[in-house]
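S.,

Sequence below, as promised.
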Amino acid sequence: MSAPRVLTGAALLLFLGGNFLAMRQPSSAPPPAQGGGPAGGPGAAGSPPAWAASSGAVARQLQSELATTNALLDRPVAAWTVGGGAASALEKELSAQKAALSARFEALEGTLEDIQTKASRLAAAAATAAAAKAEAEEAKPRAARAATAEAVVRSKTFSREAAPPPPPVAPAAFAAAGRRPQEVSALGADSPVLMICFSRADYLRRALAAVKKFHPANLALSPGSLSSSSSSSLGSDRPPVGPPVVVSQDGEDGRVASVIGDFKVSMLGDLPTASKVVHLKHSQRGIGGDGYHKLAQHYGWALGQVFEQLHVSHGHPVAAQRVLLLEEDLEIAPDFFDYFAATAPLLDDPKEKLLCVSAWNDNGQGPHVSDPRAVYRSSFFPGLGWMMNRALWTELGPRWPRAYWDDWLREPPQQAGREVLRPEVCRTYHFAKKGVSNNQYSDFLTTIKLNDELVSWRARDLSFLRRAEYDPAFRREVAGAPLVGVDEARQGRWPQGLKPDQPVRVEYPSVARFEAVARRLGIMDNVKAGVPRVAYHGVVTVRLGPDRRKVHVSPPISALKLA
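The prediction came back faster than expected:
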């Protein structure tokens, strides 16, 4: 690299600084009038002011400059030469440029939040003006319609033009049509994503790229998105904000911090309607033990920060009611956010006795799954992408463990008879080749199928997952499934006369014998706290055979503890 390149970078930095200072000057556009009304009348409120339009361009320019600086910093040191000498001075200069750009971005972020608040007020004022105009136009014909209706009622006769309104549609009709009377709300500022990370910058970049790609604010920009047009339209007075993204960094790895900074710039520049990105920094000072100890304490600290601190969305303080937990080596599916939004009401209902909702199926390998719409109750906590609520944190936070937090959650004192919702097809994919667990169960993890089909979860009726309905139906299905041998199930040799969608059952005599049966079937054989992975009351449901038939691997029917 040559000296002119550095001078060019410095010139660009000055250019960006000028743009930023211009942003800080009072706008030439008039501010909203007192009371939220637009100073320029309803017509002026219908389009964003000039300073709102220019903010995105400045953010994108900053994003480009940071990317350029990152690329230069990533070059081998041997390539940093000027006239044959070492370029440590240039490296310091570039680092200083990058730090200055990051600092300007932080300030710009605050300015843009103010802009977003003003834009929301302008949009609300425009909507109010439009509603008032429509009300005025309807005043005259409304009186005429009222007189006509009164005359019809008095005569007790209904002409074809004045027919009585149809009866309301019963909820059962919606269920029969595969729709719900009212869609479940999308996740908002009270349901942040918490990304746990440490030192794997490349992994984190991939994980955050998927979060951005499938974030509700991004999907709202795409045709055929999962977001409801009534609640997520960019033309509405309430722009789609979706969940805030909190990235909690353990330690002080500079490359990880750089990835997080780039992500903040990218989200702000490309998705200005998305909730803000928060960078938390956890210090490892004074924490002993191995990676399991450090990870558990980082988890506990980060959850405490999210649940016990207020986060801001478009100028309004919002307390987290639930958290979606991810790690730096997990990639999410397209319908990840919609899946958790649809199941949040079940998680928050105390009668359902749910510990959490999970995106993961330990037996989610390609040959073992089929239905992307299938969801099951489970007695096993799987981790690897899951949602917990404030009530669980209030209970468990004060006694959070110092190591092995996931095994601790599986123990009876913490599980307390509660269950987990998990999908048949995974909504997360674990792509790491290195980590704290030394890639344990890699043969299973690397063959997991990540869902690639958009399922409109919030439009579905998930009442079948309620325990009062699920348990009796599940017991009937397991008890009514024809019993087959292990070898028959492994080879997909089913009894004659079975319907294509009819499940079968493979029996194991005891938990001690489960591992041997599971290994012969080629499914996950691990047992934690006396519970086989993904099992529900001892029953592991999986797909086997060329037709991917549903197979219940269960204890004897007499041992099932289900209603």
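The chain has a mean pLDDT of 77.

Coffee later?
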